[in-house]
Amino acid sequence: MIFGSTRPRGARRLLPLALACAMAGTPATAQLPSLGGTGDLSVSAERKLGQQVARQLYRDPDYIEDPVLDDYVLRIWTRLMAAARARGDLGADIEDRFAWDVLLGKDRSINAFAVPGGWLGLNLGLISATTSADELAGVLGHELTHVTQRHISRMVADQNRQFPLMLAAMILGALAAGKNAEAGQAAVVGGQALAMQNQINFTRDMEREADRIGVQVATEAGFDPRGYATMFEKLQHASRLNDNGAFPYLRTHPMTTERIAEVRSRLQLAESGAPRPPDVVHFMMSARARVLAEPGVDLLRSYVAEDALRPNPDQRAREAAALYAGALAHAKLRDTRAGSEVAARLAQLVAGNEEAMRQVRLLAAEIALQAGDVQPAQALDPARGRPELMLWAQARVRGGAAAQASDRLQTWVALNAKDAGAWRLLSQAYAAQGQALRAIRAEAEAFAAQLDWQAALDRLRSAQELSRRTGASGRDHIEASIIDTRAREMMSLLREQALER
Ligand SMILES: [Zn+2]
After folding, report:
1. What is the pLDDT of residue 244?
2. Are 26 and 255 in contact (CB under 8 A)?
3. 207: CA distance to ligand 1 center in Å?
4. What separation in Å is there between the alpha carbon of 280 and the centre of ligand 1?
5. Percentage above 70 pLDDT, the chain
6. pLDDT reading at 175 higher than 90
7. Three-state SS string across 55-111, please?
């Protein structure tokens, strides 16, 4: 899973290799459980292990909830899942019980990783390093395949089926180590975990299988398989650039070259078609990832400058990316007026491309909302998609029409109960209308959606307290009984969690 890094790092004492799928290379020393071993984790055991990891990832300061990128990545992810389903790779048991959710991280390192239980971690650094949806689909298809082929279960079961909690800690420790050495040290429990950490790896056979099936899944989902090969080459290149001694396992990797060759040879038939033109929308999304990856003021200024220079005026996609990054960087530097101006220029450039125009409307609405102007966001169609809904609802709450926002959001969460961001916004919409009980419950649901059952229970208890004090009546009476039910459910989940330790 750890693909290497775009930024040089100092002393990195731990190999960031837990569950490493290492598209950029498998360490030669990997301890390899064999394919087809008999010790597989059950679907529900893997799901529980994944919950422990995902719960921490949601709380990680690097976790970012961005409706625009979430929507973009999920659309690719959903197409890949449909292709896997059509191939018969997505059994009903894992389809129903796994999460199939993508968690974005602000980290600028090029990384993506499959978490047990069907969560996928994806760094903004990786999105910003891709130049087409095909490349991104290649990475996601590879990771999806690790999940659908139950590689994680086989590996984890062979490693240590007795200590799921320790395994979760090890996975998290390795993920943290991928960010910086200090955090990694803190997250790893004890020397034994440290020693075992380097052994949690997919086998070469698993990597080959993820390559072989992953590229098929991406192709059958309608993506250009050549994206898979170019992504590999890019990752190998990035790892070479960063070969400063901090990446001993990346220094020599015949494995990587071998795997690129294998993928290339498998693609030979596909090579005959004409290359696809640059995708303006992907360039814009990649630019968004670059700006949101907390690049610091200096880099933001350089994006603003890049917009001013626009070195490749003949390449419309690159120009669109530069304008998109420039507009968003202006806004991040609190110059929303300049941001809006650049967004308007972007609109002229991509006029006629409906999906690109959709992204420009969202960007312009986001920047205007930041400046306190609710009009552009209120003009969005909340039925168009989740990014529109979220901006529109924020604008309604701030524009004194919170009841409209809560009506829409209530309908949305009825269908998307795991949408923490929508629950949180719904909580604000209720609070704005003085509906304290509903606001607190919606907040509790946001915590529950991100697997923080203790925080959810705390909110539900304070809602029960409030209900007792004020004496619920009418619609609030129904709400109060839902709150009681949910509180019991949270207690039961917490008891179950305690037993796993
Ligand atoms: Zn892999």
Report:
1. 40
2. yes
3. 5
4. 28
5. 75
6. no
7. HHHHHCCCEECCHHHHHHHHHHHHHHHHHHHHHCCCCHHHHHHCCCEEEEECCCCCE
| Å from CA of 214 to ligand 1 middle | 9
Other CB atoms closer than 10 Å to residue 91's CB: what's the count?
14
Rounded-to-integer distance, Cα 434 and Cα 134, Å: 47
Amino acid (one-letter) located at 406: S
For helices 67-87 and 204-220, what crossing angle results, to 10°? Answer: 100
Question: Ligand 1 mean position to 205 CA, how many Å?
Answer: 10
* Helix H or strand E segment including 255: helix 254-267
> Which residues partner with 105 through β-bridges?
63, 123
Q: What is the distance between the alpha carbons of residues 355 and 403, in angstroms, rounded to a whole number?
A: 30
Q: How far is the CA of 197 from the centre of ligand 1 (A)?
A: 17
CA of 292 to the centre of ligand 1 (A): 26
CA of 270 to the centre of ligand 1 (A): 22
Tell me the CA–centroid distance for residue 210 and ligand 1, in Å: 6
* Residue 138, pLDDT above cutoff 50: yes
The residues, any chain, with a CB within 8 Å of residue 491's CB and separated by 6 or more, are 457
The answer to whether 328 and 284 have CB atoms below 8 angstroms apart is no
Taking a C-beta distance cutoff of 8 angstroms, is the pair 335, 367 a contact? no
The one-letter amino acid code at 85 reads R
How much distance in Å is there from the Cα of 130 to the middle of ligand 1?
Answer: 17
- In this predicted structure, what is the pLDDT of residue 79? 97
As to burial, measured by CB atoms within 10 angstroms (0-12 exposed, 13-18 middle, 19+ buried), residue 498 is exposed
C-alpha span between 335 and 345 (Å, rounded)? 16
If one counts every other C-beta atom within 10 angstroms of the C-beta of residue 434, the result is: 9
Closest CA to 352 of 393, 316, 301: 316
* Residue 276 DSSP symbol: P
Element (H, E) at 121: strand 119-123
Q: Which two tokens stand for residue 362?
A: 């969202």
CA of 64 to the centre of ligand 1 (A): 23
Ligand 1 centroid–CA 69 distance in Å is 23
Compute, in angstroms, the gap from residue 281 CA to the centroid of ligand 1: 27
pLDDT digits (tens, 9 = 90+) for 111-123: 788 888 999 989 8
Distance of CA 436 to the CA centre of its chain: 32
Q: Check residue 201 and give its pLDDT.
A: 64
Angle at 87 between CA 82 and CA 92, to 5 degrees: 70
**Cβ(2)–Cβ(237) below 8 Å:** no
SS3 252: coil
Q: Is the dihedral of CA 51, 53, 56, 61 positive or negative?
A: negative
For the chain, the farthest-separated pair of C-alpha atoms sits apart, in whole angstroms, at 73
Residue 21 CA, ligand 1 centroid: distance in Å: 3
C-alpha to C-alpha distance for 62 and 74, rounded to whole angstroms = 19
How far is ligand 1, taken at its centre, from the CA of residue 1, in Å?
6
Please tell me the distance between residue 217's alpha carbon and the centre of ligand 1 in angstroms. Answer: 14
